[in-house]
Amino acid sequence: MSDPVRRKIQDAGIILVEILQTDKAKGASMLIDVAINLLTDAKEILEDFIKTTPSPAPLPTPTPSPAPAAISIYKINLAGVYQFVKEQLVEDKGATVKQNELLKAYKIWLTSEPNLRPIPVKDFKEKIEKIFGAPLTDKKDGKLYYKGVRLIINGEDVSGNFIDTPQ
Q1: Residues 79 and 132 in one domain
Q2: Does 123 map to a domain?
Q3: 127 CB contacts (<8 Å, ≥6 apart)?
Q4: Is 134 exposed, middle or buried, given 0-12, 13-18 or 19+ CB atoms closer than 10 A?
Q5: pLDDT over 70 for what percent of the chain?
Q6: Which tens digits make up the pLDDT trace of 52-91?
Q7: Which phi and psi (to 5°) does residue 149 adopt?
Q8: The predicted structure's pLDDT at residue 160
C-alpha cells in the first residue's frame, strides 16, 4: 500500500473516532461521507499509480529444447566427422581435396559405420573448416577445396604408408 493511501486511511480513522465520540447519529452519516471520500481518493491514487507504472516486459516464449537422447545421438554423429578425418584423410603438403569429394567420401564411409548417421551438410562443412581452415576456391572450376590434405588411397594407412592388401 502506498504512503498517500496509508495517510488517508489514518486521517479518516482519526476523524471518524472523534465524530463517533461526539454524536453517534451524526457520526453514522458522516462516516458514510468520509468512506466515500476516502474511496474516491484511493481510486484516484491507484489510477495515477497505474498510469505512471510501466508495464512489465512480456515474458519470452520458451524455445522447446530437443530431447536429451536426440542431442546425444547428434553429438555421436558429429564425432563421426572427426573419426572420418582420422581414418580417411592424410596430411600431404602438396595435395588438395575438393569439398564435394570429401562429402561424397564421408557418405560412402558412413555406409561402413552402422552406428553413425550423416549430419546435415552445413554442419559437416563447419566441422571440416574447424579442422582444416576455410576452403580455397579453385580458379578453374570455382569449386571449394582444402590444401595440404587428401583422401587415403586404397591400400594406404592414415600415416601415408602403403600396406599389403589381401588379394
Answers
A1: yes
A2: yes
A3: 78, 81, 82, 119
A4: exposed
A5: 63
A6: 877 777 777 777 666 666 666 667 667 788 889 888 888 8
A7: -150, 150
A8: 56
Q: Indicate if 76 and 147 belong to the same structural domain.
A: yes
Q: At 90, is the secondary structure helix, strand, or coil?
A: strand
Separation of CA 161 from chain center: 45
Shared-domain flag, residues 48 and 72: no
- Give the separation between CA 159 and CA 162, rounded to whole angstroms: 9
Predicted TM-score (pTM) of this structure:
0.53
Q: Which one has a higher pLDDT value, 155 or 134?
A: 134
Which residues form the domain of 39?
Answer: 3-52
- In three-state secondary structure terms, 51 is helix
Quick one: 72 and 39 in the same domain? no
Secondary structure E strands in the chain = 89-98, 136-137, 144-151
